[in-house]
Each structure stands twice: as C-alpha cells, then as structure tokens.
Recover the amino acids of this structure.
C-alpha cells in the first residue's frame, strides 16, 4: 500500500528506530535528523514517516504531509538560528539521490554558490 514502510529502506529503519540517528525534531508525520555526512554546519534531513520515493510522489498522494515536511524545514532552520538556508529535494539518481525515501535537505551556516553544482 502507498506510504507503507519498506524493509529495504534506510530512512524507514530510522523512522522505526531500527537504525540510530541524531534526531532533532519529531511530529506526528515527520522526523528530522542530522545528516551522517554533513555538507554544511547545519545539514538536517526532514523526512515523512510514510515511505514515498520522492517529493513529487508524496505531493500527489498526500499533499498535507509534504506541507508538513516544508513547515518542519523552517522550524529546523529557526532552531539552528539560520537567517538563510537552502532546502533541497534531490529527485532521481542523475542528480544525486541515493536514498529513495523522500527527504528535504536543510543546509545552512555557510555561504553557498548559485547555480548549484
Ligand atoms: P540524497 O543523496 O538521497 O539526496 O541524500 C541522502 C543523504 O542521506 C545523504 O546526504 C547521506 O549523507 C545521508 N545518509 C546516508 N546514510 C545515512 C545514515 O545512515 N544516517 C544519516 N543520518 N544520514 C545518512
Ligand atoms: Zn522508506
């Protein structure tokens, strides 16, 4: 069924508490935890508890939960006192998505270039 936990999904395992992570926030529908390989002083991943492979599939299936994810990105940024930050949803292996459970990267605490690499 859509949204069900997948046995082979790392972020489902983190949601279920089967793989440890440094969790910074949890709501009814989301969790946020620090990236294991941070690319900026703040690098937090906000993920829905339900399993969807990317942002577009979640938005189509359950728009309120993608809204929850976006709201949580701001809370994470506020808690780390970030005035500027970047929110990234990698979508597809061709742009670097490696975990196919939708997640928003919240990156901040250093200057960044635009366009991104
Ligand atoms: P993607 O490349 O799919 O957009 O992002 C996946 C992110 O998950 C990467 O930034 C990677 O460092 C992070 N990651 C991979 N394995 C783990 C893990 O076991 N724990 C945590 N906290 N982050 C992970
Ligand atoms: Zn998953």
């Amino acid at each position: 069924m859509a949204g069900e936990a997948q046995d082979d999904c790392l972020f489902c395992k983190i949601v279920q508490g089967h793989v440890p992570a440094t969790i910074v926030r949890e709501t009814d529908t989301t969790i946020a935890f620090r990236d294991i390989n941070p690319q900026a002083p703040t690098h937090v991943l906000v993920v829905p508890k339900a399993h969807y492979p990317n942002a577009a599939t979640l938005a189509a299936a359950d728009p309120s939960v993608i809204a929850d994810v976006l709201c949580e990105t701001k809370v994470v940024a506020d808690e780390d006192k970030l005035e500027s930050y970047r929110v990234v949803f990698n979508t597809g292996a061709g742009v670097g998505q490696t975990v196919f459970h939708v997640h928003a990267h919240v990156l901040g605490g250093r200057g960044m270039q635009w366009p991104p690499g």
